[in-house]
Amino acid sequence: xxxxISTLGEFGLIKHLTDSIELKNAETRxxxxxxxxxxxYGENKDILVTTDMLMEGVHFDLTYIPFKHLGYKAAMVNLxxxxxxxxxxxxxxxxxxxxxxxGIEDMEDFYAGLRLACEAHxxxxxxxxxxxxxxxxxxxITAIGEVEKESAIYRNGAKETDLICVSxxxxxxxxxxxxxxxxxxxxxxxxETAKTDIERMAISQPDFSGREYLLxxxxxxxxxxxxxxxxxxxxxxxxxxxxxxxxxSSELLHICTQSKCGCRIYEERIPIDYQTAVMCEEMNxxxxxxxxxxxxxxxxxxxVPIADHEKIEQMKDVKLIGHITKQxxxxxxxxxxxxxFELKAQGWNPLT
Amino acid sequence: xxxxISTLGEFGLIKHLTDSIELKNAETRxxxxxxxxxxxYGENKDILVTTDMLMEGVHFDLTYIPFKHLGYKAAMVNLxxxxxxxxxxxxxxxxxxxxxxxGIEDMEDFYAGLRLACEAHxxxxxxxxxxxxxxxxxxxITAIGEVEKESAIYRNGAKETDLICVSxxxxxxxxxxxxxxxxxxxxxxxxETAKTDIERMAISQPDFSGREYLLxxxxxxxxxxxxxxxxxxxxxxxxxxxxxxxxxSSELLHICTQSKCGCRIYEERIPIDYQTAVMCEEMNxxxxxxxxxxxxxxxxxxxVPIADHEKIEQMKDVKLIGHITKQxxxxxxxxxxxxxFELKAQGWNPLT
Lengths: 352, 352
Prior knowledge:
The structure is a homodimer. By secondary structure, the first copy, chain A, is an alpha+beta fold. Chain A has 11 helices and 13 strands. Chain A has a 7-stranded mixed β-sheet, with helices on both faces. In chain A, strands 3-6-4-5 form a 4-stranded mixed β-sheet. In chain A, helix 2 packs parallel to helix 3 and helix 4 (172-193) crosses helix 9. Chain A is flat, with a radius of gyration of 22 Å. The two termini of chain A are 34 Å apart. At the A-B interface, helix 1, strand 2, strand 3, strand 4 and strand 5 of A face helix 1, strand 2, strand 3, strand 4 and strand 5 of B.
């Protein structure tokens, strides 16, 4: 720490953070600096808008997530929502409320992360709000993007016999969080019990070797633009699509409820990384539960007509995990031994 | 109070609050319910985007602002930014983070206020995020609107000899806040010193009669669409425009800095309501300071070519307060006795 933000003031801080931002998209006519940003979208485009709010102590813990990663993740989870409609993100606005305990350097790091994510996806930062908070940090990001007119992919288009597909692997971000929480507890217990300076100096930093993938999935999620590109190249148009933020189970139920259908997915087909499996074993947790309900994967879950079966089989990093059924058959997971379990919405567990 | 929000859950709460929302604008193709909202704007339109974050204890105090007013105000301050570019608001997204101490009824009231503001201005609520907070309430609203292509009114177009105009009157919202703060202190002091139940029952509720206008300005600001309509009818196109959220002084400096010019405004011309003046007198505060630096007026401040002088004089509820000068003359207030005072940026006083 840290240069106090009061040395710059509101307008000074905004200028400091946004001065070097270059607008790159033709759709962005004017960015930071007036009452509004100004956009121009082509007449053959629909405009997509999504927004997310992240609260300290609920969505992130600054004990272990660095500001740069926080900025990166905050942007990425919004870009993921634009891709989940089949669109291309073009702009974000960034609002942040911060308390006295944060310095200018923290905000620089946060913006560095934001900009890294935006540059990787060709997105302009066009505005926002910077204000103070009495307590923790609050972040609100709105992403805007485009999709060919009338071509957005909704959650409600899945049809009976459609195949259910998922990108990447599931449960790793959740196990990364479990790992970080565990090491945080260990660290604080060591601090509590250390009686002398020598004991305090001997407190070991956690060793994350062999678990890097779990941490990366938790702290640096990647929105799957590449999957949309593959689908386009393969000539596949998903009938329904959603990104996995609250867990596979919850997102599948969204698709089935809105599409008025049921589904069967197969436990043995759920893509899981080796590190995720090892971590679950070590922590005595159920692997399938972690993959089904863990959340924060930011992978794409989508359905395609059964006629695309072979094309899907040839796609890299996409796995076919089940199929859509009639609504009255419900939504179920078929386990390795052939039992059926009804899917339950987990989602956000509010205020409890 | 209050039904616990946990009885509904995240998805239940969102459904409860948004189920009865009807989309009214042709530009809104799809609202709440998918990963993104979908908009279609005509090819001859530019799109305006603005966002604001409101934090409990910083921007509002739930001791005296009811949830319905909070929702109304939160929407209105964003609509005001769209009007300040010469545009028409069409959509808002609403993100809210709340802690356990709030109930479903609070959220219903908040949404009732939001909807009242949106209906009055023909705006659709198209999405948002509802999540939990460890401490206070956080609100983030993004407003989207349209303006004729290449016709947005920026802050940077003021020219030497242009006239400086302001709508409505200034300082009332600020004095409303002072009044509320004073009565809150009085109330808490009475509670502290009351020793018996009879004494506690005798604590008087504040009497706001004769000060209703101040409270209304603080708790129920109105974005000035009517002023834009008047300007359009009179055939006046402002050269620069901004809405007054941080105080006249601060906003004038924004216009002058961005337009690379100076200004002279006249103390005697600053529009002030009778109740504002009485309140300042009663509280021993400087009236001009309240009007110049109070903020939260949400009036429009704009400049017009000198040729529009007569047209401006005929406008209702618009006052000519000064003129634009060369940059090297600086920005000054001319007092009643002819002295010049340099304008200072107040703005937000961050984290101090």
